[in-house]
Amino acid sequence: MMRTIDIILIAIMLVAATVTYKIKHDAEKQVVEIKKIQRQIAFEKDTINLLKADWSLMTQPNRLQRLSDIYQTQLKLQPVDVTQIGLFDDIPLKQADDIEKLIGGSADLVASVDTLSTGSIAQPAFAQGAATPMRIVVPGVRP
Asked: Distance between CA 141 and CA 143 in Å, rounded?
């Protein structure tokens, strides 16, 4: 009887050692993967910093002016004239939206409201063809 318990305990010990080894091995693999990803992140950050520095060099006004002078015949660039800049008064006014016409009481829009009834609520009077004037109710003020 003592041998059976010993064999069972030895088997449990071997299973526990195997599981512990596997968990340790998986954890080490994860650490290696994390370090690899951290190196990639650092490389990408360095690349971004390098590209930002390169961009600042490429967009320097002196360099752009020099390139503009070199390629003047191909680009046909000209300085901006003062008369090319407009005033706010030169901008046309925006056309009124349909909702503004509806609020204003436009009979054409009131008549063009969709007459589809869903059955969930009562059909409004103006959607059935009878145009009614709009009434604004302000709380605390008598009409």
From this structure: 7
Domain boundaries defined on the chain: 2-75, 95-133
The Cα–Cα gap between 97 and 23 comes to: 67
CA distance 33 to 37: 6
Taking the complete model, does pTM exceed 0.90, yes or no?
A: no
φ, ψ of residue 123 in degrees (nearest 5): -70, 130
Beta strands in 1-143 (DSSP E): none
The answer to whether 133 and 105 are in contact (CB under 8 A) is yes
Whether the pLDDT of residue 96 is over 60: the answer is yes
CA distance 63 to 57: 8
